[in-house]
């Protein structure tokens, strides 16, 4: 999709690269013409050659500038596409693979696609043209030289192909290992309060040894193999170049070639091998590109199931569950009943009985089985429509960097600041904060109660027909808890509310229960 969208750019870049590559050939072509005509070298000719080289370099710089300015939009589009595919994955698959792991692989994939599409893919054709012209020019001087140069192509091609096949396997393993390693490190680093209070963090660093070994050990293995093999292949090329130069010098010493020939081969050899490297190195970029596309296919293969039934609103929830399944695990959760707006249902039960799984199932993170919205089986309902009408609020309130207003209106649209200030529940938040107050990472400058109030208010602003609260009041102060329960009671007719809680609820709040 992104490739077709930026088709004009790629065509423009190809033309620019072709002109840049051909301009690099102008100097040796003119020298070949002068050599054939028997023209003597002069200061004007030297200056002309310098000018041609400058033009070639200017075109290369222009290509680089245009390409990198384009990079922002192209990479952003690709990254957003990967993010969308990650979020569309099956819930348990995201958890199993690890969000950080997936994010790390997406970042690498975006860079791999960009590098291949803007360098290897575009430059390989112009490099083939340049290499062919170089061979023709050298053949006019010495056919043996051109044959030796021609032999460098299969040596490089098959050498790099062998290298790339092995590197692909090693790179796939490296991406997996680095993603897992960063995921583990992030699980520690994000717990700032806990880490800061430790008098000695050496034990934590020791526990992270395995994670850092995964990251840098896998990188070292790939780099060790890639660089060693590259040195071997570059060494072969150096031997070929030295052999070619020795033959030219020998020809010149035996008066079989003139000064123009020396100048010509001196200019062509670096140009030829530079373009041969582009052709062969394109395999490496193609390998990374293929890994990126395979990652995309992996994401698509794990996309969550969706339904097609449309829901404008949810007026009734019909539940008839005798157990819940999460992969191979069976949870002893039993629930039945029909609920309408105004109902507040308390869900209680032992740890591990499936309460949170039930809550996540109502937003179609997991398969609930026999549950219906407005008489429609939940599995048949559109995921988007379900999530427009159902809000699931978790105990660990998600807080982002930004202002209080940004946190409240994270997904809500068209809400005026005055409407926020006049909302009776949000007023309780604004007693100690302003909408423009900056919220630090993970809500570091908020109390537990303030975090839950923000999370709760954010859910309310979307106007859900079904609201699921998963232990959001279990670890907050009494004042915040009272504010939340009071607002739920006063506005109960606006929604169907499920409250997962081990704690006692205010008398008269819940009119149904699931135990």
Shape: elongated
Average of per-residue pLDDT values: 84
Helix content: 55-70%
Instruction: Name the strands of the widest sheet in spatial order.
Output: 8-11-12-5-13
Gyration radius, rounded: 33 Å
Total beta strands? 13
Low-confidence stretches: none
- SSE pattern, N- to C-terminal: HHHHHHHHHHEEEEEHEEHEEHHHEHEHEE
User: How many separate helices?
Assistant: 17
Q: Name the structural class.
A: alpha/beta
Terminal residue distance: 49 Å
Kindly estimate the percentage of residues that lie in beta strands according to DSSP: 5-15%
What does the main sheet amount to?
A: 5 strands, parallel
Question: Which SSEs are present, and which pair or pack?
Answer:
Blueprint: H1 2-5, H2 7-37, H3 43-87, H4 91-97, H5 99-139, H6 143-189, H7 192-196, H8 202-207, H9 209-253, H10 259-301, E1 316-321, E2 324-326, E3 329-331, E4 335-340, E5 344-347, H11 355-361, E6 371-373, E7 376-377, H12 383-389, E8 390-393, E9 402-403, H13 404-408, H14 417-422, H15 424-429, E10 438-439, H16 448-461, E11 466-470, H17 478-490, E12 496-500, E13 512-514
Helix pairs in contact: 2-3, 2-5, 2-10, 3-5, 5-6, 5-10, 6-9, 6-10, 9-10, 16-17
